[in-house]
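Subject: for your reference before the review

Hello V.,

The reviewers asked for a structural picture of the protein, and I figured it would be easier to keep everything in one thread rather than splitting it across files. Below is the amino acid sequence we used in the manuscript, unchanged from the supplementary table.
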Amino acid sequence: QVQLVESGGGLVQPGGSLRLSCAASGSSFSMYVMNWYRQAPGNERELVAQSGTAGGITEYADSVKGRFTISRDNGKKMVYLQMNSLKPEDTAVYLCNAHTRAWGTIYDYWGQGTQVTVSA
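And here is what came back from the structure prediction:
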């Protein structure tokens, strides 16, 4: 099992930056694909950024490409989301997700989320 705790959210003005952190505990962290999702009120949960197990492969939603960067430190069991040039439409609860598949079973673990509000 993996336990995830996000931090780093807050209120920021448009054009500003925030860095979200996700601390993981448990075993085999490096086996998990790590994702950042977000969910705004009335909207479906959206995959924002994904990091492969070694961190070399990353994927981003079109809406955040060029502005957000996902990174991970397997030794520290940490995942980060650097968010630059923030826009009001980035306002949402951001959730950290750990995903893997083993012996035909999918495992998904979630943090509690951290609120990001972009407003003047």
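For the response letter, the relevant points are probably these. The chain has a mean pLDDT of 95. Residues 2 and 111 are 10 Å apart (CA to CA).

Happy to draft the paragraph if you're swamped.

O.
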